[in-house]
Fold this protein.
Amino acid sequence: MSSLLITGATLADGTHADLAVVDGLFVDPAEAPQGATRIDADGLLALPGLVDSHTHLREPGREDAETIASGTLAAARGGYTCVHAMANTDPVTDTAEAAEFVADLGRRQGHCEVRPVGAITKGLAGEELAELGLMAKSSAGVRVFSDDGRCVSDPLLMRRALTYVLPFDGVIAQHNQDARLAGPGACAHESELSGRLGLGGWPAVAESIIVARDVQLAELCKSRLHVCHVSTAESVEVIRWAKKRGIRVTAEATPHHLLLDTSLLEHYDTTFKVNPPLRTNEHIEAVREALADGTIDMVGTDHAPHAPQDKDHPFDVALPGMLGLEQALGVVMDVMINTGRMDWATLVQRMSVAPAAYGRVASQGRPIAVGEPANLVLVDPSARGVVDRAQGASIAKNNPYHGRNLPDPVIATVWAGRVTYQRGT
């Protein structure tokens, strides 16, 4: 039986408390055993463990870029106690057996809870539905389905998927990219800059046009839709309209779309190539505002590790994606907390409660209270540091925050009562 006694912590609502953990649950501090491991949390915030709605762990198939062990260690160092592992592995997570394999690896090797995301279509090909029902009924208990990286372009197939997941309360998470408006050559936000750099432009409407189609399909089917990595002001307005109509839609924003802008492409550094692309300030501001007011429900990192041989190419050829798990909380603090746009209770809602509810993860996003699962992160709000990609836990090093001075808040992470990360140990 493992036990912890955390003394002098401050909760998100500003109250102070000692916290005791016995065998994976919060208990009354008076019940902490004599031999409990003690952690001094004076001056620290104790928040529910973070939950990521959108993580690429690459295993199986691309262990040269990331593994479940390394990716979940990065998650723990970022304060996460649960991640949703996207389906674009090799083989694709499009069967019950594949989902169970990922879930089992997570149980055996993970430093946080790993929830497999199932593919919407077989092989991510966008032609035929994958084994949605069997994945849902499997021991992996899949509730989120996505062809992320590829848009389900066929509206009839999308309607079928939304209808199919209704009986088991599944959610379809869409990568919003019109294949004709933002085709294979699109790799930068369409603007004066993309033209000057000679990079294929991705217009903002290529994202929002799919969001608009899919929220109406969700309304038709009375089903759950999730909008992945919102990056444009137009998409924000469509989601806001859909929520006013009572459509069952949720949305996420990435840390990089909250902080980084398209000017970083000036030197063709492929670290900054991502899908959807980095946008201009008016779009960044719209996404920040939407996250603050709840139009965007949660932060999803879209943590996308790549091996050097996949990034060391001309900009238009390199694979898109960047790391996100270890710096996500620091970025959100810098952009939203330290600017007064958001308080700590709202951050808990966006980075723990909402993504846990989205994935129907019963043990996550819970209050720090007696009887609840002991998932928490201890945060030093004043700690900052210069990001060094060489010090990251991920195998890949495509970290877009390298060299930036950001909040470095995570002091310790506890998952199911077990310390999975503690600074200095």
Q: What stands out?
A: DSSP finds twelve helices and 20 strands in the chain. The first helix runs from residue 68 to 77. The chain has a mean pLDDT of 97.
